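Example complex used in Figure S2.
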Amino acid sequence: MRLNRIVALFFRHVYLYRRSIPRIMEVLYWPVLDLVVWGFITVYLAQFRQNLPKFIPFFLGALILWDILFRAQQGISVSFLEDVWSRNFLNLFASPLGPAEYIFSLMLVGFTKLIVTASIMAALAWFLYSFNIFLVGISLIPFVLNLIVMGWSIGIITTALILRFGQEAEVLAWALGFLFMPVSAVFYPVAVLPPFLQAIAQYIPASYVFEGMRSVISKGGFPLDELLWSLGLNIIYIVLSFLFFYWNFRVVKKKGLLVRIGE
Amino acid sequence: MLEPIVEVEGLTKVFKSLKAVNKVSFSIYSGEILGLLGPNGAGKTTIMHMLLGLTTPNEGEVKIFGRPLAKHRKEIIQEANFSSNYVSMPNSLTVKECLKVFARLYQVKNKEQKITELLKIFEIDDIRNKLVRHLSSGQQTRLNLAKSLINDPKILFLDEPTASLDPDIADKTRRLLQLIKKKSNISILYTSHNMKEMEEMSDRIIFLHKGNIIAEGRPADVIKRFKRKDLEEVFLKVAREERY
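Predicted assembly (507 residues):
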């Protein structure tokens, strides 16, 4: 594994974003729109704050955190699609670039986009709704990192599936992340889910993150149990997602599909 | 005796029930241009993809620089490169940015110097800041070729590098490749559907049909063997399956 090659691909995306207004919009447009719409709904519902204490931090915090997970996933799968769309994929894999270097470079691209998106969302939330996400405390950072890792796992699996099934599976880049939303308990506690979904939710790292966030906001303190569960599951999933990608990469090379991607 | 750069032994690739490449064996020697030709579906591009490690063979062995490709792909590919007219460079990057990305990928020392040199050789210095999507097909081909020489490869895989070029640009590209070969003693595996080009460019050719080698040797010898006037006629004979 060579850092040079990871940096090379990182710069390939930096060059791309530097001059592409539509791509910059993609980083900002949807998150900002989400924040504006849901933010005002939250402000409206906050009138009933007696029934729903700390409604703004619950809702806006969840919204920003969910966007972090979703953007982390997209940072990998959409950046991969950029190479497919530009029919450059074969040039990359005809070079000494390895699959792990490729994935790490996408993670780096995704992480950078994420920092930009999250910073702007956090600033807007403060400006529009006087909501300072950092008031949740320093404890937020390990939870955010867990969401990023879960987003990466979904992104790697999405990429592997697109490699295997071709561009017909492109829609997964936008859809797969949302599949986890209902069981991630983003805007509501796991307890409101029916029992079978609760059973699934206990295997979803994000559900512990959102439960943890609500616990921090309502009770304070540091929900170590939630963090450890989330971390443990994430370690398993990120390892499994890499193994799945590697296995799939071998399969597509055997089936001759790697050279057909983007055709 | 010339040193073999590429040694291929019993290479076979089967896609479902189709035998795309059937027990193909050949070598490419130092400083040689080997032309792979044959009708569509003959297995040319599949062989090239297997030599690049992009497609895994069902059987057979590929050794490049004396080392098995299956075990030493990264080290081998570091000293090889590839260009195809059907593969593009990132179209939202400029010519220079593309070359910078690939210079980093191949860990080229003195990147700026190498890029400047290639931009001059391929006469694309004046469009260095132009976006790839705004380039003509001739300019894109020259950029692809410039990229393929970014790491001073010892072996170059060129898949129809002059397809879709007008005769003038195609001729210039061929001359440039011959000049580069002469200067750097590079070995080239070359595919094309242009038989005149194959005759002109190749030191040796391999004629493929339905995944099998049906003729191998110097272009003049192959033409003689088939009792035809030129490679074009040999190609037509094979494609129309007069005997095969």
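Chain B has nine helices and ten strands. The mean pLDDT of chain B is 91.
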